[in-house]
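seq as requested:
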Amino acid sequence: MTTTRPRLKTVKLTDPRTLRAVAHPLRLTLVALLRREGPLTATQAGELLGESDALCSFHLRQLAKYGLVEEAGGGRGRERPWQATSGGMWFAGTAETPEMAAATGLLESVLAERYFEDLMRWIQTKPTEPIQWQEAMPFGDYGVYVTPEELKELNARIEALLEPYDQRRFDPDLRPAGSRPVTLLNLAYPYLGPRRKEES
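struct tokens:
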């Protein structure tokens, strides 16, 4: 009988200051790295990312202030290991104040740039990947006519489909042979009309 490890919580980002603090490419990279690799020191993280250990140490301390990482115990200075405190982040995507709108827009922009950069890396690397992985990766979009309520329901159904795979993120023993981490983007936005030349 396999005993699954407890699922890490989702950290809710609810104030503009925290959203702005997280909206930094290296900080987002460090959090993602700790979630995938487990505890790492600033030196180890720097080696994996091609960054200096001093820079990684600074950003890990900043992330700790906002509850996204914590010391894992053992070591001192830059040789102390850090671990992620959450399995994911959540923020509303809506804003009641101009300050919250600006902070939300900043974080969404940084995340969108990361998605695009990662996607371009995959496209460039794809020809060297095994054919079964090339064939398995979807690439496209769907245009649908829905109400806000229907879109929320559709998103809930997508999340329900992914639920059986979720625990694999936290328990390597549950991962079947040949599996690898895959980013599945969940994005939806309304059609805003034809893209005009001056918008390009």
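The chain has seven helices and four strands.
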